[in-house]
């Protein structure tokens, strides 16, 4: 297995074995960080953030800095040559001479794939519109592996905006490839998972998917609860939004029937969909998830840069 | 009764749903061919009631992949020496490029001319194509 020079645009770009390799290395770095503090000395990460991002960008920057590398880039397209009308292809063909690995966030779906077609260095998708967010998936997977020991035999509930949530799409596609994983998809009717994605997952992996509007009906038999924010701007009808939004807020009292080893995850940022009283529950792992995401990104960059096999 | 003579060599695109012949004529750019071309419209058909037919003489090197997208009932007859030497039904192409655009307004292909999507026929739908950039499904309509 050799990931040197590879792009990560879609989680399906990596096989299950390759994803496992990234996660295992990430956990190894997490446990022994000093062994890897100079791994990327002399390497440069280029961050191309065409839309605002806090945690993904800083997580990547932290990851590279923790391995002794350097970072350059832009975090606002209005301050870059993009504002002068430069195409992605031209930007990439310049910046791939400045950096050894590039991470791109872009509001247009498919933009990182376009970038990868013109880049001579590895390109990582840092989130493209409502499409995919594969390194958030790595953060999710490393958290599951860290707390459960394996990524298998899981009943995973996704709750909230499943239509536009790119983190959901990436993780759902990826987990469906692991052994014996089934899903409960909890959302209002207007925010159900795109039917083509659901059909493709069922067709390719023959997994069980339950679609429902009730979190309470399933809270007692799930292993992972992946929360996302219900976004007001997605609703055409304000009344409908008001009616539904509170039913997807997780309070601690809703967890009384949940399993003791449930993992509560969230890609963050949260607004109010997880009440603060849940933070004190030992099953809430979303802040650890953000932390572990740094180590997953360290492992990813080390492997695609070829500084470790 | 309108009579159109048979062609000695060329292509007959038959069983076109009535009304679609002119669109196919335009999509295949047949007006630019330097060869005799006939478009017959509203011809009686036992199967379809009415149908359109296109006959192209002395020319068989046409990209006919688009026909499956337009009308799956179409049949194509290849004529050599006044005889039908090959008769085939059209199929939806598994991969297409450059024939239509992604319907997703958030797709990079809608703003960047470097991004030309290659569409793959969705295994979950008989008529929809998945964009290679955004993965949204687009149904081709003439």
Describe this protein with a few key phrases.
heterodimer, A: 309 residues, alpha/beta, Rossmann fold, 2 domains, five-stranded parallel β-sheet, four-stranded parallel β-sheet, 9 helices, 15% strand, globular, B: 142 residues, mainly beta, Alpha-Beta Plaits, SH3 type barrels, five-stranded antiparallel β-sheet, four-stranded antiparallel β-sheet, 2 helices, 9 strands, 8% helix, 37% strand, elongated
Description:
The complex is a heterodimer of chains A (309) and B (142). By secondary structure, chain A is of the alpha/beta class. Chain A has 2 domains: 11-132 and 292-305, Aspartate/ornithine carbamoyltransferase (Rossmann fold); 135-289, Rossmann fold (3-Layer(aba) Sandwich), CATH 3.40.50. Helices cover 35% and strands 15% of the residues of chain A. The longest helix of chain B has 7 residues, at 21-27. Chain B folds into 2 domains: 10-89, Alpha-Beta Plaits (2-Layer Sandwich), CATH 3.30.70.140; 95-139, SH3 type barrels (Roll), CATH 2.30.30. In chain B, strand 2 (37-45) and strand 3 form a beta hairpin. Chain B starts with 9 loop residues before the first strand and ends with a strand. A 5-stranded antiparallel β-sheet of chain B has the order 2-3-1-4-5, covered by helices on one side. Chain B has a 4-stranded antiparallel β-sheet with strand order 6-7-8-9, with no helix packed on it. The model of chain B has no long low-confidence stretch (mean pLDDT 87). Chain B has helices spanning 21-27, 66-70, and strands spanning 10-17, 37-45, 49-57, 75-80, 83-89, 95-97, 118-121, 128-131, 137-139. Classes of the chains: A alpha/beta (309), B mainly beta (142). At the A-B interface, helix 4 and helix 7 of A face strand 8 of B.
């Amino acid at each position: 297995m050799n990931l040197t020079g590879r792009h990560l645009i879609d989680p399906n770009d990596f096989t299950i074995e390759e994803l496992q390799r990234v996660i295992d290395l990430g956990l190894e770095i997490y446990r022994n960080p000093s062994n890897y503090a100079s791994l990327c000395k002399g390497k440069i990460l280029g961050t191309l953030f065409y839309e605002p991002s806090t945690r993904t960008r800083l997580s990547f920057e932290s990851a590279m800095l923790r391995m002794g590398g350097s970072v350059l880039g832009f975090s606002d397209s209005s301050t870059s040559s993009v504002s002068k009308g430069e195409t992605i292809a031209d930007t990439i063909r310049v910046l791939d001479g400045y950096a050894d690995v590039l991470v791109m966030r872009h509001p247009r779906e498919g933009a990182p794939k376009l970038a990868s077609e013109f880049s001579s260095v590895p390109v990582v998708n840092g989130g493209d519109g409502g499409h995919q967010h594969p390194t958030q998936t790595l953060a999710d997977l490393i958290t599951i592996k860290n707390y459960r020991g394996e990524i298998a035999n899981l009943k995973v509930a996704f709750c909230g905006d499943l239509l536009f949530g790119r983190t959901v799409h990436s993780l759902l596609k990826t987990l469906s490839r692991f052994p014996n994983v089934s899903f409960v998809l909890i959302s209002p009717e207007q925010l159900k998972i795109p039917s083509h994605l659901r059909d493709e997952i069922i067709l390719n992996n023959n997994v069980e998917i339950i679609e429902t509007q009730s979190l309470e009906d399933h809270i007692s038999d799930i292993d992972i609860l992946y929360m996302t924010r219900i976004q007001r701007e997605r609703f055409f009808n304000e009344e409908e939004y008001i009616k539904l939004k509170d039913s997807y807020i997780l309070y601690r009292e809703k967890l009384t029937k949940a399993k003791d080893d449930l993992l509560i995850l969230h890609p963050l940022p949260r607004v109010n969909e997880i009440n603060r009283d849940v933070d004190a529950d030992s099953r809430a792992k979303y802040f650890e998830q953000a932390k572990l995401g740094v180590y997953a990104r360290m492992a990813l960059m080390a492997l695609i840069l070829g500084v470790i096999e | 009764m309108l009579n159109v003579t048979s062609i000695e060599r060329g292509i007959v695109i038959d069983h076109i749903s009535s009304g679609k012949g002119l669109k196919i004529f335009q999509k295949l750019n047949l007006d630019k061919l330097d060869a005799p071309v006939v478009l017959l419209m509203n011809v009686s058909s036992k199967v379809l009631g009415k149908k359109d037919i296109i006959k192209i003489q002395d020319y068989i090197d046409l990209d006919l992949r688009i026909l499956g997208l337009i009308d799956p009932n179409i049949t194509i007859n290849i004529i050599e020496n006044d005889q039908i030497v090959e008769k085939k039904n059209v199929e939806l192409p598994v991969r297409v490029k450059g024939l239509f655009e992604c319907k997703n307004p958030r797709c990079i292909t809608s703003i960047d001319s470097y991004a030309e999507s290659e569409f793959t026929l969705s295994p979950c739908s008989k008529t929809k194509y998945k964009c290679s950039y955004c993965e949204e499904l687009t149904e081709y309509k003439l």
